[in-house]
Amino acid sequence: MQTLRPLNKLAMLFAVAGLAACSTMASNQKVTIQEDFASTDVHAHSFPGTDRATCEAARRALLSQGYVINEASPALIRGRKNFQPGADVHVQIEFHVVCAPDSKGSNSTTAFANAVRDRYSLRKSSTSASLGVPALGSLSVPFGMSDESLVRVASETIANKLFYERFFALVERYFDDSAVPEEESTANSMSDQ
């Protein structure tokens, strides 16, 4: 009977490890199922005009909402905004916009946008020091101080369609009239006469 006990313990360890592996696979499968590549309108929107004008409108839209622009070029905008929803919680949204002409020589551009939300939590760690005493060996003596640091506890891409629709609508408001293709602005001026 005593020889069976270690085997029972080993069998239970394998069962627990198997369940943990199944839950990890189920979690990975859930993420994979969410990534179905069926929709192209959540993170992308087409604008009339050049990539430079589109990215400039996106830069202004982000600035108007309090984002700090970390990188700005004619084809890429990257901005960041910080939030503090609780005393020990910090949230940061990093927004990326890539502006790509729809085709060579085209007067329309697609803006591809995605935002990543990182959540940080305040963690405390106490400070201690080791003291070597020849007769006793090493002793760890705690000090009354503790260090606090923010530790990232979650990171995810925002997938809310309404979030991006609002952003693209704001980009349209900041779009410069000079970004409208010349043919369209000429046609509009002729129809006014």
CATH superfamily of the domain at 40-119 and 155-178: Kinase associated domain 1, KA1
Strand content: 35-45%
CATH-defined topology of the domain at 40-119 and 155-178? TATA-Binding Protein
CATH hierarchy, class of the domain at 40-119 and 155-178: Alpha Beta
Could you give the distance between the termini?
102 Å
Helix content: 25-40%
Major beta-sheet overview: 6 strands, antiparallel
Low-confidence stretches: 178-193
Overall pLDDT, averaged? 77
Query: What CATH architecture of the domain at 40-119 and 155-178 would you give?
Result: 2-Layer Sandwich
Coarse structural class: alpha+beta
Shape: elongated
Radius of gyration: 28 Å
List the helices and strands in order: HEHEEEEEHH
Task: Kindly state the number of beta strands.
Answer: 6
How many helices does DSSP assign?
A: 4
